[in-house]
C-alpha cells in the first residue's frame, strides 16, 4: 500500500486502563476478527500476561479502516520494559495515550508519555471508561491535556467496553498521526523491533520497513551482526499470521528467518537486501543493560541442568534477560541473573516456576555497581559477594522516580524518600487533590521493599514509576554475614555507609528468627571487613525428644524422624550449621514486614 | 499347645469413663453394655493368634483406654484367661482403684500397676480433663500397697498449659513421696488439629521458652532421688534400692530392644517376623468379625530389613544401655555420626560385644534430633 495511507501507532496506558479492551474493539470495528473469532483481549497471548494484566512481548496487528492500513504495535505496560516500549515506539509515528476516567494519570502514564514525546511521536490523548458512574472524564481530560501540552477539547472520550467513541479514535489516527516518511525506491531497510522463536520455523522477526521492500524468498542480511538468511516468508498479523508477497516501505510485518539460534538476530538490528544492500543501517537501539541482579538457585541441586535449559529457552524470547553461572558455597550451583527491573525479575521467576516447574531460591536483588579498585582497575559488580575489598570508588545507578499521590500523603512519601537517600527534584499539582513528585533515588534503595513501603505508607494510593538516569558515586559498604564464624556469600549486601549498622542489625535479628536452634550455640554476626557491627547468638536446643514410644507408636515415630531427617536434608549446610533456605531470603525483607 | 516364639503380649481395653482432651489412644467412652462382648472378642482373637505365642510369656500388658474401668467381672474373666507371664502390668486411673479392685488384680496374677497420676495440681488435672484428684492418686497407691503390690509405676505429664516451674516441682515431690518403684514422665504432646491444641495451643506457645528446662529439671530431680533414668521418659529404682530387683518395665524393654510382640484388641499393634499390623480401631467391625469367628480387619505394614535396622537404632538409643551395632551399621549416616561424636552427643566404642553406640547425657536430651541425624 502506498505510504500515504499507512498509519503505525501504539497504545500507551497504565495497567487496567483499558489498552487491551480498546485493541479488541479496534479489531472488531475494522472487521479484522469476526464475533465468532473474538476472544477477549486477543493480543495478550501468554497465560501469565492475562493473569497479571500486562503484556511482555510486542506484537503488531494490521487493520483496515476507511481505505487506510493501520498497524497497531503493542507495547508492554510497565516501565521495567522501557527498553521494549522504546523499541516499539520507534516503529510508530504516533501513539494513543489512554487514561482511565476514574483513575486519572498514573506514574506509568507519565513515564511512557515522556518516552513517546522523546521519540517524536504524535500523541492522541484518550480518556477511557466514560461509562463508569464514578468517572471524572473532564478531570482526566484536563490532566492528560496538561501532560501532553494539548487542548482538553482535543482529548477523545470513549468507552472501550461499550465501543462508544472508538470510531472517532480510528478517524483521529488517520487524521492526526503522520504517514511514514521512508523512501520506497531506496535500498531496503527494516528495523527489527521484536522477535519471537518458533520451534518449527525458527526466529520470527517483527520488522518495520523504513525504505524499499522485501519479498518472500529474498536473501537478507542483518547489518550490525552480519547474519545472512533467506526470508522463508514475509507477512503480517491480522490478527493471525498472513503470508504476503512483499512488505513495502512504511509497513509493519514479520519475516520468517529460518534461523535456529535467536542470538544471531538481535532486536534493534537493521535488515537489508543482500542483492542491493543499503549503505547505512538505521539508527540502532542502545544495548539493553540489566540493572537489577539476583542469584537463582535450584532448591534441589539435581535441577541445575533444567534451570540452565529453562533460562536458555526464556532468553530466546526475552533479549533483556541476562544470566551467567554462579557458585555459592551456601546455595550450590545456580545463575546470577540480570533483569531490567523488579517486575521483570518477578515475571522471570514465575515463568521458571510455572512453565518449567522449577523450585527456586532467589537471593535478595541488588543493582549493578561500577567499581574502581585501589589497583586502578574498573570492574562492574553484579554480586555483593564479589565486591572487591580494596576500593577507590564505587558508583551506583540512579533513577528518576515519578510518584503520584493524593496530597495528604506527600509528607509520608517525602519521609520515605529521605530515608532512602532520595533527592527531591520538583513537585506539581496535577489537580487539586493529586500531586506528582519527582525524585532522584539510588536504584539500590528501591530494589528491596521500596514499593511495598510506598504502598503501605500511602494506603495503597501511590503510583510509582522510574527510569534509570545514570551512575553516581556513593559511600557504599559491603556488609558480610558470618554464621558460626563462616562468611556466607549469599547473604552479603552492599549498603550506604549511614545505613550499614541498622541493616546489619536487622539482618542479624532476622537470621536469628529464621535459623532453627541447633545442638550448639550459633553466633550470627554482621561485619564490615573485620569489624563486627552486630551480633546475636542462636541458643543451643535443650531438648528434642519424642516423649513416648511404645509398641503402637513405633511406625508413627519412625516416620516423624524420617520427616525430620528429610527436613534437615533440605537445609543448606554452612559449616556445621543447618540453615533453612528461607534464611537466605531474610535480606529481602529487613524492615520487619510480613512476606 | 503353641509353637510360636513371641513372649510379649499387649491387650487393649479401650473403655473410659470420659475422654481426656490430650489423649490420642483408641478409646471408647462408656458402653458398659459392650464390655462383655469385647472381652469375648478378645478371647476369640487370642485363640486365633495363640500359636504365635511362646509357651511361657515374659510380659503381658493391659493398656487402654482405662483397663480398670472395664466391669470388674469382665476384667477378672479376661485376666483369668490370659496366658501366665513373669510380669503382668495393668494400667489404671487413680479414681478406679478401690481396695476391691486392687485385690481383684492381685488375685488374678497382676504384679505391676501403672497409675495414670499425670499431676497432683487440681488446676492442671482439670486442664487435662482428668477425673481424679490428688487424693485419689494417694488412695490408689495405698490401696495397691495394701493389696501387697510391690511394683507400682506412676505416670506424670509435664509441660501442661499453665504449669509453672513450682507446679512441676510440687508434682515431682508429691510423686516421689509415694515412693513408686517406677516413674514415667512425659512431656505433653499437643497434636496439631486436636481439640486440646485448639483450646491451649496459644498458651503453650507462650510458655514454650519457660518450659524448655522442664525435661532437664525432671531428670535432675528424679535421678537425685536415686532413680535410674533408664529410658528417655522412664525411671526406676535401681537394684540396690529395690532388694536387688530389676524394676525396668520388662514389657516396654521388649519394644525398645526390638523384640516381637503380639497386640490384641482394637487399634492394637503387633510386630512379628518383619511384619507389623494394626487391628481396626472400629469397635463395631472388631466385634462383628470375631463374633463370626474370623480375624478382625488389620492394616498391614511390611518392614524391610533396612527399616527394621533404622527402628532398632531409634528405639535402642532411648535406653541408657549401649546399643550393640552388630548388623546395624548400614542404618547409620557415618558423617553424621562423626559430627555428633565431635559435638559430644554420641559415644561409639569398641567392646567385647562388638561396636557399641550410646547417647551421652546431653545427647539423651536431644535424642530425637540426634537420632534423625544419625539415621542414614
> Number of helix segments of chain B?
14
Superfamily (CATH H level) name of the largest domain in chain A: P-loop containing nucleotide triphosphate hydrolases
Task: Write down the overall mean pLDDT of chain A.
Answer: 85
Helix content of chain A: 10-25%
Residues in helices of chain B, as a percent range = 25-40%
- Can you tell me the overall shape of chain B? globular
Distance, first to last CA of chain A: 55 Å
- Low-confidence stretches of chain B are none
Task: State the CATH class of the largest domain in chain A.
Answer: Alpha Beta
Radius of gyration of chain B: 21 Å
Structural class assignment of chain A: alpha+beta
Q: Sketch the major β-sheet of chain A.
A: 8 strands, antiparallel
* Fourth-tier CATH superfamily name of the largest domain in chain B: tm_1862 like domain
- Main interface by residue count: A-B, 25 and 46 residues
- The CATH topology of the largest domain in chain B corresponds to pyruvate-formate lyase- activating enzyme
CATH architecture of the largest domain in chain A: 3-Layer(aba) Sandwich
CATH architecture of the largest domain in chain B: Alpha-Beta Horseshoe
Overall number of structural domains of chain A: 5
Shape of chain A: globular
The total strand number of chain A stands at 34
Keywords, separated by commas or semicolons:
heterodimer; A: 595 residues; alpha+beta; Elongation Factor Tu (Ef-tu), domain 3; Alpha-Beta Plaits; 5 domains; 6-stranded mixed beta sheet; 34 strands; globular; B: 376 residues; alpha/beta; Arc Repressor Mutant, subunit A; 2 domains; 3-stranded antiparallel beta sheet; 14 helices; 37% helix
Your description of this structure?
The complex is a heterodimer of chains A (595) and B (376). Chain A has 595 residues and is of the alpha+beta class. Chain A has five domains: 174 residues, Rossmann fold, CATH 3.40.50.300; 85 residues, Translation factors (Elongation Factor Tu (Ef-tu), domain 3, Beta Barrel), CATH 2.40.30; 72 residues, Elongation Factor G (Translational Gtpase), domain 3 (Alpha-Beta Plaits); 105 residues, Alpha-Beta Plaits (2-Layer Sandwich), CATH 3.30.70; 113 residues, 2-Layer Sandwich (Alpha-Beta Plaits), CATH 3.30.70.2570. Chain A has twelve helices and 34 strands. In chain A, the strands form seven sheets. Chain A has an eight-stranded antiparallel β-sheet. Chain A has a six-stranded mixed β-sheet with strand order 2-3-1-4-5-6, sandwiched between helices. In chain A, β5, α5 and β6 form a beta-alpha-beta unit. The longest helix of chain A is centred in the last third of the chain and has 18 residues. Chain B has 376 residues and is of the alpha/beta class. Chain B folds into two domains: 248 residues, tm_1862 like domain (pyruvate-formate lyase- activating enzyme, Alpha-Beta Horseshoe), CATH 3.80.30; 70 residues, Winged helix-like DNA-binding domain superfamily/Winged helix DNA-binding domain (Arc Repressor Mutant, subunit A), CATH 1.10.10.10. In chain B, 37% of the residues lie in helices and 22% in strands. Chain B is built from 14 helices and 17 strands. Chain B has a nine-stranded mixed β-sheet, sandwiched between helices. In chain B, a hairpin with a 2-residue loop joins β12 and β13. Chain B is globular and about 60 Å long. Chains A and B meet through α12 of A and β8, α9, α11 and α14 of B.
